[in-house]
Write a structure and sequence with these properties.
Helix content is 35%, strand content 8%. The chain contains five helices and four strands, in the order ααααββββα. The N and C termini lie far apart (52 Å).
């Protein structure tokens, strides 16, 4: 049985949708297994989407899932009950928050292989890599990219 192929625009839209889902899972709002249960597909199906091995047959289920989640103004997807607090010093300069894993030490933004990432000096947990120091700081503190 031959599979239907979509146009390039449709494939780009599906790829963008999968990237949005990948970002949602990467930010640890929910595991891929939890996403699969809520969408109504197998765990392996979601993992194959996220790894780029295949594309979803019914992308509207992913759209419905992502659109049903609460959002914060201007920041994209955010989990229910999530409160963002801006961490700044007395001069108003942003600073890293405490480690979300051990809650013992404040994070440090370090250079990591042509990028920057937040690192906990206590438990050595690391945050997502970003291109600039400011973006890595924002990601470590729980926001997306900095908007200066």
């Amino acid at each position: 049985m031959a599979r239907k192929r979509g146009s390039k625009d449709q494939l780009k839209e599906i790829d963008a949708l999968v990237e949005r889902l990948r970002e949602f899972v990467r930010l640890d709002y929910m595991t891929a297994a939890e996403v699969a249960r809520r969408i109504g597909v197998r765990d392996s199906t979601v993992y194959s989407w996220l790894q780029g091995e295949c594309r979803p047959a019914k992308p509207e289920t992913i759209v419905a899932f992502l659109d049903s989640l609460p959002r914060e103004n201007g920041s994209g997807i955010a989990p229910t009950g999530y409160e963002y607090r801006e961490y700044k010093n007395w001069r108003g300069i942003p600073k890293p928050r405490r480690c979300p894993f051990c809650k013992q030490a404040k994070g440090v933004i370090r250079r990591a292989r042509c990028a920057f990432a937040g690192v906990c000096p206590n438990c050595h947990a690391s945050g997502p890599k970003r291109d600039t120091h400011a973006e890595a700081l924002r990601a470590w503190n729980g926001k997306g990219a900095y908007s200066d």
